[in-house]
Amino acid sequence: MDANAKCTILVTGFGPFLTHTVNASWEAVKELQQLWKNSVEFSDVKLVVEEIPVSYDYVSDYIPQLWEKHRPSIVLHVGVSQEAKSLTIEQHACSNGYERVDICNKCPDETDVEYKILETEIDVKELCNNVNENFERSGRKACLSVNAGRYLCEYIFYQSLCIEPAKTLFVHIPDFDKYSSEQTANGLYDILCYLIRNLELS
């Protein structure tokens, strides 16, 4: 399949941090990978998944490498939020203000970082509406957000937006008590279906 793939999709989830000893985002991404293997519809689309440690240094070093290695048509970053009640599609990310320490007890050095806000160029309103129109079939809802939390979730989103805002999306997902990994994976699958169909039309 890889040799004949017409495009590559990169999806990331996060590893353990704080009380999230099993991170719902990575569990959902693993479920998504299984769904993809069984999909006939997108057999010519290569899905690459990566578990990302909750580390600022790792993200700033490794995310550009992933873009360079895979040259993806879409990058979907996934993170867990205790506040999320549905699939929460983030619209923008900030360059600085990251004062919460990561799993290495570090924050990014923002000494020379100019304050910027970068927005995804994906039509998130249309995407959100599309997910909600399919609610009766999928059982999952989506909403839009302008606050990605100023932690690793927003940080990874910002790093990818710096590279290619037209191909970058971030989705916060609820924890296990609201959606199972399988439910979330189906929601992420719906999002990717929409994005791939839009790629084909453009």
From TrEMBL:
InterPro entries named among the record's database cross-references: Peptidase_C15 (IPR000816), Peptidase_C15-like (IPR016125), Peptidase_C15-like_sf (IPR036440)
Protein keywords: Cytoplasm, Hydrolase, Protease, Thiol protease
Pfam families: Peptidase_C15 (PF01470)
GO molecular function: pyroglutamyl-peptidase activity
Keyword presence, NAD: no
CC terms in the record's Gene Ontology section: cytosol
CDD domains to which the protein is assigned, alphabetical: Peptidase_C15
GO biological process, one term: proteolysis
PANTHER family per UniProt: PROTEASE FAMILY C15 PYROGLUTAMYL-PEPTIDASE I-RELATED, PYROGLUTAMYL-PEPTIDASE I
Family of the protein in this entry: Belongs to the peptidase C15 family.
Name used for this protein in its record: Pyroglutamyl-peptidase 1
Organism: Cyphomyrmex costatus
